[in-house]
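User: what does the whole thing look like in 3D?
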Amino acid sequence: MSLVNFTTREITCKIVYYGPGRSGKTTNLQYVYSQVPSDRKGQMVSLATRTDRTLFFDFLPLDLGTISGFTTKFQLYTVPGQVYYNATRKLVLQGADGVVFVADSQLRQLDENLESLQNLQANILEHGVDVRTMPMVIQFNKQDLPPELILTPPELDDALNFRALPTFPADALHGPGVFETLKGIAAGVLRGLSEGSGGIRRL
Amino acid sequence: MSTTTVVEAWAEAPLVRYVSQASARLVVVMTPAGQVLAQHGFARAMDLMAAAALGAAIMASSGALAQQLGERSFGALFHAGRHHGIHLALCPTPRGSLIVLTVFGRETSIGLVELFYEEFAAALKRAAPVEQVREPVLAKDFEADLNRSLTSLFRR
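Assistant: Here's the predicted 3D structure for the full assembly of 359 residues, as structure tokens:
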């Protein structure tokens, strides 16, 4: 749950980038890291294997600036996408204020996207959170690949977006869609704070 | 100069006392999700957040390992380096479980840290209130501020 310091007027929120292996979660954070001035970001921490696959998580603290008089900080995390790392995914998801689901737009990855989405819902439920109240957006990544290899955003929306969540086509490697996705989830999470209760309901 | 800052005021007095007694260099009191409630000694907020994220991750993974072995938890962890040691422990409070990361140097010892940590954990438990239902924090029209902040963040 987001932390609010009324004395120093600071808000800290935890955002988790979730999705199947190699969908581009770490790439999203790397792009954000490369674009943000150094006084507005911390060191990017990556607990990865020798081949740069995420082993535990990546972590990037960001200073969003002042919003409604509160200095707002976001902590961006990724989870390991590979199926057999579910225990660590569950740990990283603990206390999340919002989730970005990074889907791989490739046609051959559709089943992996669905499996990961179901896994996300199961893990949120295991933390005792009503999944319908968790702020979430979906990013359709790798839209830069040749059209014959990928599904279009409307096709992906039909296949994956059962809750009518905000969606963002993206090419995280080169940047398009990364900013819009972050903005989308930030708005979703902060909306909860403007309505009280933090937005997230526990079961 | 080292500073102590707290998000919730009830944590301040026990933390100041603990830092002084245990001669700790850095201390972070955090939630299991890695959110910082109080700290001592960090000069830069972003370094503090990274330390909290890693501390929470260590506790989360060792807790999961404990469960697999049929243990409830491993209580406290200790790692010794050449110049620094870290002590990482769970602290149950009415506000929920908290995690305390203590970094100490050669001016003290793990024995003293453990000794004063027990007192600190008891003081936190006494001082912590039960979590309150949260009132709205941000104004309804926060999105204009958000757009401006993110635009400047991405230099667009």
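In plain terms: Chain B has a mean pLDDT of 89. The domain at 4-153 of chain B is CATH 3.30.450.30 (Beta-Lactamase).
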